[in-house]
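Moderator note: this is an archived Q&A kept for reference. The question asked for a predicted structure of one protein chain; the sequence and the answer are reproduced below.
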Amino acid sequence: MKKQIKLSRIHCAGCAEALEQKINEIEEIESASIDFSTKTIFYETEHNHGKEKEIREKIIGVVKKFDHTIQIVEDEDDEKQAKKEKIHKIVDISKIFICIVLAVVGFVLPSSVIWLKITLYILAYLCVGYEVLISAFMNLFKGKFLDENFLMTVATIGAFAVQEYVDAIAVMLFYSVGEFLEGLAVEKSKKRIKSLLLVKAETANLVTDDGEQVVDVSLVKEDSVIRIKAGEKVPLDCVVLEGNSYLNTSAVTGESKELFVEAGNEILSGSINGSGVLLCKVIREEEDSTVTKIIKLVENANKKKAKTERFITKFAKIYTPIVVGLSVLLACIPPIFGQPFNVWLYRALTFLVVSCPCALILSIPLGYFAGLGSSARKGVLIKGASHLETLAKADTVIFDKTGTLTYGDFVVSEIYATEDSSKEEVLELTAYAESFSNHRIAKSIVKAYGKNINTAWVEAYKEVAGKGVLCELFNEECVVGNATLLKEKGIAFEEADKPGTVIYIAKSGTYLGYVLIVDKIKEDSGVAIKMLKENGIRTVCMFTGDNEKVASAVANELHIDKTFAGLLPEQKVEKISSIENAKTVVFVGDGINDAPALATASIGVSMGGVGSDAAIETADVVLMTDNPKQLVDAVKIAKKTRKITFENIVFIMAIKIAVLALSTFGLAPMWLAIFADVGVCLLAVLNSLRVLILPKDKSEKQEKTKKSKTNNKAEK
């Protein structure tokens, strides 16, 4: 079982990654990861019964040894933790204010009291810089000579040595202000994802023969009956037995519109009940519930880093030693040729401040972090920054038809029987044959039959993927499926030229007739495809196991570029690689038969509402409302994240190179160097948060305008 330890006062994504590596070096740890979004260490151990406390203490020891400023949050409520965080903020603001007052007083004092001026300068310096000094001193014993604390300490003490007191204070002051504002900006982004983790209910109102009792959610089993009162979170996925209400599902699906539910409707865990009281039957236990799956996806998202993130991490390890080396040369070489040592030492110290790679290490991961948070708010769960980066480069989108572009809510529209049978027999045999299948087409046939099915009469059942069912019914061999299956079995029949899904049935080698199933196209499918093309998708394709006639009708209505009909699951995989000029392919599906294609494509996207567990597990992206328009949101967020990340890299490097050049010629004071580090980092962080704001598409605006005009006409 995965265990966790909460952390506080860890603001750096780079530090989190380094700490994660240290924890994984502990012998008893199988795997460990740090979720920067929730400041939580997640770890799994080998089978060490009775040693859980010892292992936990080892992890805490590693944390304290790594950085004394990082704090362990003991088990306490959120209110207490919020109060502690508030106190820390007040202390940080107070230190900044006192530093400014001391520095200003010291600056205005006359030179005749130089000892008092220097004393006030030292106090101002220590007020905001003591934590940096302590960390730098302690890091000397850990071999961390090139971290920001050590570099800042050397630079500012050097500034004091050459009597540049104000510059030394300014460096520490700007660093403290920058860190404080940076922390606020990071926290704002964290709350976007952290809010997802708060949708999980801890208890449920379990209804038993003995009455109603409040129990832990983990104790509630499948088929148990629970009561959900007004204002409560839905604790588990369930079906409404009695009552009706409006549910707020925004935390789970990203859909702001309230959902009306009544008896027979399925509701998802994490939703919030409105004013009604609902009596419900649990259909999934805690481990398999929707909200648990969401939390697992969020927790694991930070593990899959984008190529850009990995490159920046490697670059930072090279960049810092190079700049530090240049600073040493800058301090040593000019004085050899008679240049004043103090002047070139000051310039070298400025170099040291600029050498900190924090701006890159923090802002780049935060850009992707904000992208993941923004998509989660829209009801799109992306399983890592690497998938977000790949999605930004997508040029081809392939949609499965049934349940993806169409509702998948099938109904029997026609029953045809030959002279050797009757419509009642055709429907009965088809319903019996399909009674073991979970496919929506099968369920629609069983529903149309409407009678109890004695499954004991169904023998030798075999489901043929993408084709149909083989079985024995009432001691006779039956073939139920599409035209391909009947042809393979050598059964003579007349193919129906109908717009819909045709299920043929044969008994003992004799063709009996067919059942025609029709499906409806989703209202948003056409708009979604149009919006995808507006957002850089060159080609939109559709894969389906359905016949050519049905596929063509859907494709023409939705303006799909390429259509491939009559495909089996393995053929879908083959077709993905055969699409011309497709470099980065996104496949969108929902069924278990789509799992291979989801895994093969550059990005696999699954419908989270109606999607099968296999499809959701295999997919890289999950759309929680089954609305294809959510894919547009994901693409927009991915592209914007990529653009902002590139902007940050160019901006940060341009400023750092400019300040390095200026400091070489003595044109950059040390306070400007700290701006090139902390100030630029803050600006990059704020720029990253722009990912959370998305402009509306032209197609979306046009659609809303049309609806508005239609409503106005109706009113008139």
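Archived answer notes: The first strand starts at residue 3 and ends at 8.
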